[in-house]
Structures are given as C-alpha cells and as structure tokens.
Amino acid sequence: MTAPLRLFVRRRETTVPDAETRRVEIAVRVPTDLDVVEETVDLVARHCLASGVPPRAARFVVRVVLCEALANAIVYGNQLDPGKRVDVRVEVADDQLQLRVEDEGEGFDPGRVPDPTEPHRIECPEGRGLFLIRQLVDEVHFNDRGNSICMIMRRA
Amino acid sequence: MSFTVRKDEAKGVVVIGVDGQLIVGNRHELKKKVVDAMEAGELRFVVDFADTGYIDSSGLGVLVSLSKKIREAGGDLRLAGLNEDLRTLFELTKLDTLFTIMGSAEEAVAAF
C-alpha cells in the first residue's frame, strides 16, 4: 500500500531577525499518478493558507496553477512513468509566493507552445495549461533544461 | 468530488452539477455521464458550476469537446452558476465566446 501523501510533506518556517520577515518552505514529493493531483493541490493550498497566503489566492489561483503544472509534469514531463517523481517546492514570504514544480523528464521549450486563444485553436481540447499559468501569476520561469517551472505571485 | 445528474422533464434538459472541482482526475467521469445520456437520446445539457471550486485546463478541454459533440448531434450544452473566478478562466481562454453562459441552472434550462 502506498503511504499517504502527507508523509512526503516537509514544512520549515524561518524568520530573518533583522528584517523581521518570515518565510515558510513546503516541499512535497509526488508520485507520477494523475489520481494524486487533487490531493496534492489541496494539501499545498491548505499549507499556503496556514502560512498567510491570502484566501482568494490559496483557494483559487494556487490550486489552478499547481494543478496545471503538476498535470504537465506527470503527463508530458515524466510521460506517466511510475518510476519517476515530481518535486513541488513552495516558498511563502511576506512579499511573494513562489511555487516550483520539477519533473524527471527531458524538458521542453516553453517558447514553442502555441497560443490556445487563436481562432483556429479555440476548439482544441488541450493546450491551455501553460497559457492559464502565465495569465494567473505574475512571473513564470523555466530552467534551461525545461523540466522545472517556477511560478511567482507577488503580494500587493 | 462528484457529479449530480437530474433532468428537467418539462424542458427535456439534463442538468449536471459539478461538486468540488472539474480537473484532470475526474473529467472522464463527466464525459461518461454526458455520453451515456446522449446514447439514451438526450441532446440538451446544462453544466451547473454553482458548487464548483476550480476548473483546470483539462476540465475546460472536456467541456469544449463535449460541446462540439453535442452540437454535431443537433443539441446544445450550456454553462451556468460560474462564480467570478471561474468566469475569469473562460474569459482568459476566450471560451466565453464558445459557450452560452447563464447566471443559474434554472435560467439556463428556461432559456432552452
């Protein structure tokens, strides 16, 4: 039997004394299985809420973008290989929230993903994940290999 | 998360409620409910999102493909009950131009 996902969660809270800023780090190692996406998203969103992320961001934006990034990592990155894992790392700071999702795949070129809102693509059933991420967060970065996405939401 | 299915007999409209979220893990369940109803002769559908927290791109994708399938069969799929966040997803992806979106399931049924 697979161990519950919560056993793969690490949470660390640090405070920078001089600046009086607080930072919470959450890390989850996720199996390559689409059935755990919902549980992972829920787990991370609840940790974000408990760490001071505003309710609307934790309830909606974090859930949508993490769901997209996880599904991409599992399906396109790890190619549904159960021998591979996805690492989710979250940093909640006073000024921003950073979500990083890394798979064990070969990576891809995010510049080659087409715009799903073009008229001839509007009825395509796929291809909106990365577009939604880019629309909902303030910054999106990839590593050079293209197997790690970093999504940043700034606090107003 | 689950789906509730009911039929408005007077209008002949199948109303499917999405309780929780419509995402990569449960989209096939929604597709099966609609396809099963179509095989039973149903052509008018309303998907009610009044109790839905979030939808991912897979969920949007299944709505797009079901809508196309139903239109090709001579029917229609309409959406209802979207809160502000969910409506934003449809606006960002321009899918608000593809679907008829009504305030409530009752309005969507009545408009058929």
Shape of chain A: globular
Total number of helical segments of chain B?
A: 4
The 3D shape of chain B can be described as globular
In helices, the fraction of residues of chain A equals 25-40%
Order of helices and strands of chain B: EEHEEHEHEH
What is the top-level CATH class of chain B? Alpha Beta
Give Rg of chain A in angstroms. Answer: 16 Å
Q: Would you state the CATH class of chain A?
A: Alpha Beta
Tell me which CATH architecture of chain A applies here: 2-Layer Sandwich
Helix content of chain B: 25-40%
What fold name stands as the CATH topology of chain B?
Answer: Transcription Regulator spoIIAA
Structure description:
The complex is a heterodimer of chains A (156) and B (112). By secondary structure, chain A is α+β, with helices and mostly antiparallel strands. Chain A has a single domain, classed as Heat Shock Protein 90 (2-Layer Sandwich). In chain A, strand 3 and strand 4 form a beta hairpin. In chain A, helix 1 packs antiparallel against helix 2 and helix 2 runs antiparallel to helix 3. The longest helix of chain A has 23 residues. Chain B is of the alpha/beta class. Chain B has one domain: STAS domain (Transcription Regulator spoIIAA), CATH 3.30.750. In chain B, 39% of the residues lie in helices and 30% in strands. Chain B is built from four helices and six strands. In chain B, strands 1, 2, 3, 4, 5 and 6 form a six-stranded mixed beta sheet that branches. Chain B starts with a strand and ends with a helix. The mean pLDDT of chain B is 95. The interface between A and B is medium-sized, with 26 and 26 residues.
